[in-house]
Amino acid sequence: MTGDTMTNDSSAAQAKHGGCLCGAVRFTVSGPLRPVIACHCGQCRRVLSNFAAYSAARRGDLAIEGAAALAWFESSPGVRRGFCGRCGSALFWDCDGNDFVSVSAGALDQPTGLRTRRHIFVADKADFYEIGDGLECLPQGQSDPWPQDDAAADGAGGPPAGGR
Ligand SMILES: [Zn+2]
Ligand SMILES: [Zn+2]
Known about the structure:
This protein is mainly beta. Helix content is 9%, strand content 33%. It starts with 15 loop residues before the first strand and ends in a 10-residue tail after the last helix. Residues 1-12 and 150-160 have low confidence and may be disordered. Bound molecules: zinc ion (2 copies).
């Protein structure tokens, strides 16, 4: 192997790819990805067995291939969770009115180059694990201003970033 494509360290500026376990759904993010928010709410726990690790992409930067295999479940009014209808992989969390779509960080091809920013809904976390990474923990959700500039402009608190 020459490895000439493996030494590229400018990946932040490149499209990111991801997909489900069976490969029926693939997606490409052509813009920035938000740092990961770990959601410990009861909904994410049931869907993912543990907490959810979601990045996010601007709606217009997200291109989905194999959308016919993608299924959606409305988990709260105005909030839908996208998953592969074939293998069940959780892929997206999409809230009406957001100009971004949350993307399952675990569905992204490695390396993602992402870091976790904080934990939310920790009041609802399961009792079989502890959070020990020293990051900020919020008892409930918080609508994260992202992309920073756009969201700061419209002010009003949006829907929670996770669950419920
Ligand atoms: Zn699949
Ligand atoms: Zn959640």
